[in-house]
Amino acid sequence: MKQDIDESDAFGASLSNRLAFRLYQCANQLNKTGNKWLERHEVTTQQWAILGALVRDRWQGGIAVRDLAALLMVSRQNLTGVLSRLEARGWIERIIDEHDNRSRLIKLTPEGWQRWADMQGDIASFYAEAMKNLSNNDKVHILHYLDILRENFRAIDEAQGGED
Amino acid sequence: MKQDIDESDAFGASLSNRLAFRLYQCANQLNKTGNKWLERHEVTTQQWAILGALVRDRWQGGIAVRDLAALLMVSRQNLTGVLSRLEARGWIERIIDEHDNRSRLIKLTPEGWQRWADMQGDIASFYAEAMKNLSNNDKVHILHYLDILRENFRAIDEAQGGED
DNA sequence: AATATTATGTCAACTTATTTACATATTATT
DNA sequence: AATAATATGTAAATAAGTTGACATAATATT
To answer: Which residue of A53, A75, A85, B146 is 20 to 30 Å from B25, comparing CA positions?
Structure first.
């Protein structure tokens, strides 16, 4: 009996270990292949993620750096650099929030919109390759599982002090 | 009929988009929370992944940088820096391969083994939090799905020229 | 045997992530 | 109203990822 429990724990621990390692591998490959796939558009996967957030209906009026960082689950400080590079190329603009002079609202420029439109074909073909052999049903299941993991990580992050 | 197909495609594209974004979020949080969780052991999640590879029975005799890079799915060049930091602290050693003088075999030192042993308790508690609300059966399913994604990414990477 | 090609690891420059520190603006407290 | 506390964004230093270039060693070719 005791042995059964121990064996079960060891199995679970081994699975957790492998699962975390797979996540690490997949993330590395997502970045590597994504960067190269959109190379000719001069955009990285991180910039791609940012543009994808800015085109959402909800953020048409602009989004504060703090909120964008929370959405992408990166630090505010990290965004400063990426946003500066995007701004230097004229893809986004930083607008001072009328209601709070500390805050900068990040918005896509017409140039940014055009670039986003230009890369949609390649983004679609990338997803077609990356999600090969996965049915929509499979994708729904993965999404569900990743949501649980994301929530667990978010809870750990919060318990660790959040953005401090 | 045509419309059904279009709708189906749009749904699949939306799922792919959200799935990739979840992967990006989870990876960011895994690194952020993992780094902080093992802070007192002075080890990052990347170093943790490397140590975890080096303790495997198969690599007790040492592993070449090229093979380690393939396992972690990062570039050879990236490892140079991380390995130098680990070597400077005396956790690993680079041994010239007798059979091929170009190759360096990476091995854990006794100090490295001790440090690895010291952090096992915290690693276990991290996994307990990170994998909360997931049964072993769930973990097996996630592992299966991530394997498919990893293989898809690997295929894309290879088609893009691999390590060039 | 001499030479060309390939493989391995490292260095340098760049992007993206982190934390700490800080200037400035807003909000709360007294 | 004055002051303390909090919030926002940025700068700087460090770690981890990328690619391109290179020295050196092993292998293939002639």
So the answer is: A85
